[in-house]
Specification:
- Helix content is 17%, strand content 30%.
- Strands 1, 3, 4, 5, 6, 7, 9, 10 and 11 form a 9-stranded mixed beta sheet that branches. Strands 2-8 form a two-stranded antiparallel sheet.
- Strand 10 and strand 11 form a beta hairpin.
């Protein structure tokens, strides 16, 4: 298959996550690792775009980083009474995605699963740790008819000693 059969971002809906080789992205409401280079990559990828997250993901962010600076923070919740300073509440994914701005879905697991059909790109960090967790990322490699790995970055070593690599996926046209 040629590169022409794969699309560049059209919708402007991206997904971003860090995962273990087995797909774990979260454990007990947080990330089961600390890789500062991944956090810097996340800031670079999401830039000044809108970020969409579930309420539990919002609550897992350290208070000093809520809302994520320089970005419109959209929080999905079914709880109509929930609010937080700096968060724009959306009752469902359709409402959150109803924008002409570029946006990045940043978790959690249920939000990733629901948003996957709308995404045209994924920025993924693979953290080379064998960890257990309760939240996993979608397995894009299991769907080669839909997803293509366009950049499989080299392994690097974090200043914490943990190996990681950045990967980019694109949806097939």
């Amino acid at each position: 298959m040629t590169d022409a059969a794969w699309s560049e971002p059209v919708r402007g809906v991206g997904m971003v996550w860090a995962r273990s080789p087995r797909g774990v992205v979260g454990a007990d409401g947080g990330m089961p690792w600390h890789v500062p280079e991944d956090l810097a990559h996340f800031r670079q990828v999401t830039g000044d775009a809108t970020v969409v997250m579930g309420r539990r993901t919002w609550e897992s962010l350290p208070e000093r980083f809520r809302p994520l600076p320089g970005r419109r923070n959209v929080v999905l919740t079914r709880d109509g009474s929930w609010s937080a300073d700096g968060a724009q509440v959306a009752p469902d994914l359709a409402t959150a995605l109803d924008t002409d701005q570029s946006l990045w879905v940043m978790g959690g697991g249920q939000v990733y699963a629901a948003a996957l059909p709308f995404a045209d790109r994924v920025s993924e960090t693979v953290i080379d740790l064998d960890v257990t967790g309760d939240t996993v990322a979608p397995d894009l490699a299991a769907d080669p008819d839909t997803w293509r790995l366009v950049d499989d970055g080299a392994w690097q070593t974090s200043r914490t000693g943990t190996r990681y690599r950045f990967r980019e996926w694109r949806r097939r046209a």
